[in-house]
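All the exercises in this workshop are built on plain-text protein records. A record pairs a protein's sequence with a compact description of its fold. Backbone structure tokens are a discrete shorthand for how the chain folds in space. Once this layout is familiar, the rest of the handout is easier to follow. As an example, a complete record with its sequence and its structure tokens follows.
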Amino acid sequence: MNNHQTKVLETRRLLLRHLTKHDVDDLFALYCDREVSKHIPDAPKSYDETERELEWIIKECYGSHGFGLWAAILKKSGSFIGRCGLTPRTIEEREEVEVDCALSRKYWSNGLGTEAAQAIARYGFEHLHFSRLICITASENHASICIVRKIGMVFEKEVEVDGRRLLLFSAEKPPDGGR
């Protein structure tokens, strides 16, 4: 891994590292899969939008917040399989941080989403010291709902995001810090 690919987290099967400008093609390919992008309310719809999102992640998220979405790399092959991480969000005028994960369809249904989400939530609570994390998902996205429940989030309410009614799940930092 070179200096431009800073590792953030590692799980049993995944490496999560900072996204770089070199990831734009892989990221765009992820968003081009309609089955993936239909679950991302604000998914870029063009290569240019993907470049702008990537620039926002690198400059604003990493630069201003110290966190953001990261490249999900399958350790076994070194393949880019999606993007996961923590996203700053404003929901109903409240600043929130969302555990966010989008994997290529080829990698669905084998526990990688749960593995990533658990590590990301733990990182948010233990290393970044957030007292609360959220996940937002559509009511028909049963796989996502299953994952957020597995990581200890509970349904809080329905919210409107970009004109869509979505479900907001949340978790508070455990009193012992999650240990």
User: Anything to note?
Assistant: The beta strands are 7-10, 14-18, 69-74, 79-91, 94-103, 132-137, 154-161, 164-172. The mean pLDDT is 91.
